[in-house]
């Protein structure tokens, strides 16, 4: 159970660093650039902890999936990104895939 929590935290830090990367304006805003690097390091640290107890074939796709779905959500909800309606169908497929991987593991 702890490994899954670590994987979730790793995925959330993936969203943090991706968001701050955008907000850093090409690393020109030092505060956001710093959070980007810290978020990357923490994401990898928690992924490393999780992957000690979870198979890589499960942990890695779930980690990237959390980052992908979370980044879409942050982009739309906080950054004003516009997503084509059909894109939402594919985001839902990603989420269904993540849930399916977890349920069948």
UniProtKB/TrEMBL annotation:
Keyword NAD among UniProt keywords: no
Transmembrane segment boundaries: 28-51, 58-80, 86-104
Membrane topology of the entry: Multi-pass membrane protein
Location within or outside the cell: Cell membrane
The keyword Disulfide bond is assigned to this record: no
MF GO annotations: transmembrane transporter activity
Any one GO CC term of the record: plasma membrane
Keywords from the named record: Cell membrane, Membrane, Transmembrane, Transmembrane helix, Transport
UniProt record similarity statement: Belongs to the drug/metabolite transporter (DMT) superfamily. Small multidrug resistance (SMR) (TC 2.A.7.1) family.
Protein name listed in UniProt: Quaternary ammonium compound-resistance protein SugE
Species of the source: Loigolactobacillus bifermentans DSM 20003
Taxonomic lineage of the native organism: Bacteria, Bacillati, Bacillota, Bacilli, Lactobacillales
